[in-house]
Amino acid sequence: MRQALALHQAGRVQQAEALYRQVLAAKPDHAAAAHFLGLLLHQSGRSGEGVPLIELSVRADPKNADFLNNLGTVLRDLGRASAAADHFRRAVGLRPDMLAARDNLGSVLKLDGRFEAAEDVFRGTIGRNPFHVRARLGLADTLQEAGRLDEALAVFEEALAIRPKDAELLYGYGVGLMEKGRLAEAAQMFRGALAAQPAMARAWQMLAQVKRQEQEDAELAAMEALHGRVPDASQERMQLSFGLGKAHDDLKHYERAFDYFAEGNAIRRKGIVYDPEKTRREFAAMKAVFTREFFESRKPSAIDDDTPIFVVGMPRSGTTLIEQIIASHPKVFGAGELTILKTAVGKGFPLDMKGGFPAGIADMPDKAFADAGHDYLDMLHARYPRFRHVTDKMPGNFLLIGFLHMMLPKAKIVHCAREAAATCLSIFKSHFRGDGHLYGYDLAELADFHNLYADMMAHWHAVLPGVVHDVRYEDFVADQEGQSRALIEYLGLPWNDAVLAFHENQRQVRTASAAQVRQPMYKGSVDLWKRYGDRLKPLTERLK
């Protein structure tokens, strides 16, 4: 086993696998050999073979906390958050001071949207070990995800009082300040992180986001020098490419900016799995279910709760701006990008439903939509119990408008539209958190997705006339007050001048537009895409 482990750690995968299999051939219930062979297979992209072996090792040695923690990590990687949490919890039960398992448990609970449980885990870890920075970072991130940004900032401040030069803490605090709209302070935190860790590529990227590059300065030179040193296809190279693209876009060096954006996107595209044809089939299947005949033969739920205001559209189409305007009204709380609609729909209409999803929806009773509507409202009111209206700004919810109408017919749906090329270029210039916009890292795939989106919105307008209220980004830029008044009137709210000073609202903003919405309405962005000229041909020639 020692030789196999040494080969495994040295990256000599084939030799390590052969030795692990020799041990198992001689002793099939050898827990360690099964465990580490399973991990090797998972790490090599053969999870289907690896996971059963790791599970076998846990059955053979059920009190091995390390095995339980590793199995939880693998299940988390595979998207099985609840199962992962169970194994992390068992590991912590066996070894309460096992910090890695405690951190993993808190992180997976947060990932699963169980914020209070995650908070309890992280606070418990901090109580046991006040100097454990990862737990403080996990707690702060959990509070941010839960919309409790001020509390998250307080956690960072406490942690920095203990470790004032910790790069991870400075970086995390900077992100929180950026989300709060305190951009100058955020820039200082990112600079502090870079002073402690000069090669921290993501800190360079975030500094570029909050800083207006007005000239070629020492910071730009340092970022370009680091870009030249890091490996070509690395995550660090990608992060620096997006940061340098933003800096040169500020400087109006559009050729150089595009080169950097293209490189960052190409690196990101190689690291993801995206199937454009599968996406096309999913859109077509949704249209095939939610037809005009479907709505004519069905009755929406009797739910009259109009608390939620849904803001939908393509990312970078003005959804964050529109939410910021709406949330500046004293009767509205801006909750940002919530996942609870997807959760409610997934519970009521699971992927393995009879007839398959979404085709099986045609055979579901109207009550199923009412039940899903109540599930959504239960989650919304549990999170935001004191607010008359709450915005839910998940752009991709445009695909679920048929569900929305059947579940919550009194809710308002605001659709944000923008010039197609401008929207797509803005997406191409953005490095999104997580895996929510996998279509966005190739110009041709991006154009195809935008075409599908535009076709889907035309479908909803045809089968549900008057249900969706369109707002256009360019119209808001041209006539901010007139468009704002029309929007507030559609929402049924009394006029309030605060919506015109949306950039002064210090609510939490967690999207790629966090810096932009802190500025007054800016007209220069409307035709910016045209300055990239022929470099956008792969996009513009495919857009319908």
What does it look like?
The N and C termini lie far apart (60 Å). Residues 510-514 have low confidence and may be disordered. Strands 2-3-1-4-5 form a five-stranded parallel sheet, with helices on both faces. It contains 27 helices and five strands. Helix content is 60%, strand content 4%. The chain has helices spanning 2-9, 13-26, 31-43, 47-60, 65-77, 81-94, 99-111, 115-128, 133-145, 149-162, 167-180, 183-196, 201-210, 218-229, 235-250, 254-270, 276-289, 292-297, 319-327, 340-348, 366-383, 401-407, 420-428, 443-463, 473-478, 480-490, 537-540, and strands at 308-313, 332-334, 389-392, 412-417, 468-472. The radius of gyration is 25 Å and the shape is globular.
Question: What key attributes describe this structure?
Answer:
544 residues, 27 helices, five-stranded parallel beta sheet
Give the uncertain stretches in residue-range form: 510-514
Distance, first to last CA: 60 Å
* CA gyration radius, whole angstroms: 25 Å
- Helicity range: 55-70%
What profile does the largest beta sheet have? 5 strands, parallel
Strand content: under 5%
Strand order of the largest sheet: 2-3-1-4-5
Q: How many β strands by DSSP?
A: 5
Secondary-structure-derived class:
mainly alpha
- The number of helices is 27
Net shape: globular
Task: Summarize the topology.
Blueprint: H1 2-9, H2 13-26, H3 31-43, H4 47-60, H5 65-77, H6 81-94, H7 99-111, H8 115-128, H9 133-145, H10 149-162, H11 167-180, H12 183-196, H13 201-210, H14 218-229, H15 235-250, H16 254-270, H17 276-289, H18 292-297, E1 308-313, H19 319-327, E2 332-334, H20 340-348, H21 366-383, E3 389-392, H22 401-407, E4 412-417, H23 420-428, H24 443-463, E5 468-472, H25 473-478, H26 480-490, H27 537-540
Parallel strand pairs: 1-3, 1-4, 2-3, 4-5
Helix pairs in contact: 1-2, 2-3, 3-4, 4-5, 5-6, 5-7, 6-7, 7-8, 7-9, 8-9, 9-10, 9-11, 10-11, 11-12, 12-13, 13-15, 14-15, 15-16, 17-24, 20-21, 21-22, 23-24
